[in-house]
Amino acid sequence: MELQGRTALVTGFAGVIGSVIATSLANAGCDVIGVDKVKHDIVRMSIDEIKAESKRNVKYFQCDLINKEDIHKVFQDLKSGDVDILVNAAGRLSINKIEDLSDDVWDEDIGLNLTAPFVLIKLVIGLMKDKGWGRIINISSIMGIKATGSISSYIASKTGLIGLTRAVAVECADKGVTCNAICPTVVDTPYSYWKELRGNKGTFLE
């Protein structure tokens, strides 16, 4: 696929998955728009490294994706039509038994893992259809397909993200726009809670 000159928006830019995706897209010829909640200074080195390696433009927007108003503020400074590729890589995982899961934590997990991708897709999909080209990639999880205990809000949100992906894919099938979900298993990041959840990764995978 020829990506030279395309523009990709990647959420979760400061995370391991998001940063690797952003780097790969830049190296493939895309200009990159990174979005995450951390301050610009924290990702400045990553931005400089991607620019130096790929020779592509890299912009960064600090944004709390749980807050819809924050998302819309990003797009006040950014034309929706500038986004050819949308990668929803931001996510969070909370560990709580169902009886201990607060409404606030549930809302935050659903907000970041499911509602934010919906809002972003809604903002870019119309112009993708008009252009006759667009790529939407949602980073779901193996937990969107399988299940385990104590992460019900994560499982619900990632399962919902797969459903949203299917719905968008069908709706856009004849418009030149594709929508796919990737379902990673355990990824070793600072946000990997598998040891806390199951003692160790081996036990969890069994």
From TrEMBL:
Highest taxon above the source species: Eukaryota
Pfam families xrefs: adh_short
Entry's EC annotation: 1.1.1.100
InterPro entries referenced in this protein's UniProt entry, alphabetically: NAD(P)-bd_dom_sf, SDR, SDR_fam
EC category name: oxidoreductase
Regions crossing the membrane: none
UniProt GO molecular function: 3-oxoacyl-[acyl-carrier-protein] reductase (NADPH) activity
Catalytic activity: a (3R)-hydroxyacyl-[ACP] + NADP(+) = a 3-oxoacyl-[ACP] + NADPH + H(+)
Family in the record: Belongs to the short-chain dehydrogenases/reductases (SDR) family.
Descriptive protein name: 3-oxoacyl-[acyl-carrier-protein] reductase
Organism: Magallana gigas
